Here is the input.
Amino acid sequence: MTVTEGDDLAHILVVDDDSRLRDLLTRFLSENGFRVTAAGDAADARRKLAAIEYDLIVLDVMMPGETGFELTRALRKTRELPILLLTAMGEVENRIEGLETGADDYLTKPFEPRELLLRIRTILRRTRSVPEVADAGNEVTFGPYSYDRTQGELTKGGQTVHLTESEALLLGCFAQVPGRTLSREDLVARNAVNGHERAVDVQINRLRRKIEKDPKFPRFLQTVRGKGYVLKATPPGT
Here is the structure.
């Protein structure tokens, strides 16, 4: 397996009604270091999008029922998820239409798999950048805290901060992707919270009481309205 900087842990949703191409893309992307979920049409994609937060969608344009263009327009109304369109239509007008729907990139079939890989990595480097987080190797720092992702240990001023097992699981999940918003559904899917999605808010509040000066006005573990939660950083010691 080949994993390159910027695409580790990236989860891609491949949507194509051609089962042969869908299987080939799933295998190829998996072999190149991505987590991959496949969907056979737009309806299937919508069900999967409702359950898990993805880093990017590779989306076929010409599908029975809702087309890739239509799904892209609908998604753009509610989220900023990167979308790479695949289509057999190579005319300039079609490429322009694809980009006007809000897609990040457009690739015409047939294509070279290595070009698809290059375009995916380019999109992810741009959309997954998190400059506000101090991330040095296995350590993620936010304010006076430092979290060791290998040991699963949180420290403040060199002193260990005691976390319950559930708090450690939750913080560890955010520390793996600092600066990215995780939905309640995604946290449950990643096993960061044991139980129903409604249990997420309870666990978030408990963790905030450990790391926030005022849990009602969090600086580090912030709420992203309508989307979920994100671990943000401030300069250490502030």
